[in-house]
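Exercise: predict the fold of this chain.
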Amino acid sequence: MITGHGGNKKKLAEKLGCAVEEIIDMSSNLNPLGPPETIEPFICENVMRIRSLPEPDAASMRNGFARFHGIDENRVIAGNGTTWFIYTLPFALCSKKVLIAGPTYSDYQDACRMYHIDVEHCLAKAENSFLQDVDEISRMAERVDTVFICNPDNPTGVLMLRDKIEYLLKKHQNTLFVIDESYLPFVENAEDISLVSETGYENLIVLSSMSKIYRIPGLRTGFLSGEPKIVEKIMSYYQPWSLNALAQAVIEHIFDHPEAIEPFFRKTRLYVKAERQRFMESIEEVKGIELFDSSTCFILARLKEGLTSGQFCEKIGRHRILIRDCSNFYGLSDQYVRFSLKKRDTNDHLSSLIRQVMEND
């Protein structure tokens, strides 16, 4: 049974005796504005594509991504979400010892455990606002062959600047760095931070998700980019028809209209920045809960002693709102929860509930 993720709306609905549709999911980190307006009509108009086999290697989808980012198509693989890559990479790269910069997404560790690969963690601390110590990562990178960095990080929302990652890439040229940029499209000036188009490092692999920014997680789409030699090595483990026909068609549609991508990103970033600021200011004076600065669409919070994340989630859940209990993130405890921003009235409703819970506890 898979239990390491959030977003179990069905379980909460069953507990409350209500319809799944009545649950507001603030545990999953998705674009609060929803997918672009053209996506769902496009799916309806193209549903007949499921009657035929898709391209076995999703070449058209891959080429669209490469074209948009200005890189050669032999530097890109299209995958069934970034999760497929995360679980394939440790095996395909023949990793022996892996370093994970955390606290972070649990699947990096779970993927290594699947192949009995040794893992070390470089854990950022709450007292440092969860900023990564690049010098410590560098020291630990000396004794591993692969490093996973989520940038910006999930669940902390902390961003590592490009120059710090490039410092690591240059200093440890015999170590592979997997940089997961799944949440980077939510960040201002993301294009200046992203390493997707960087061709100067043979030890760099970048993961890019379409699920979060486009709010299409059910389609399971993502990309890996890197040096052609690395791409070729990973492709030897690629299964034909890994991406369904409808998923491929939607992503091709997005990249066939590049003029719509930048305005969509800009609108999302402005909205997320404004709502994040409003939400944090609304909780600022509430005693017993501390919010950490975030660069993306979700916010990590620490609860006062005596109130556990499970208890807090249960209290909020009574109001049909699902938030993320972060107690199962390695390096965090049962004092931590995470909120994913939604529409303004929903965010205001949650902040009001948080004040109620903390004042009555």
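Check your answer against the key: The CA atoms of residues 174 and 243 lie 32 Å apart.
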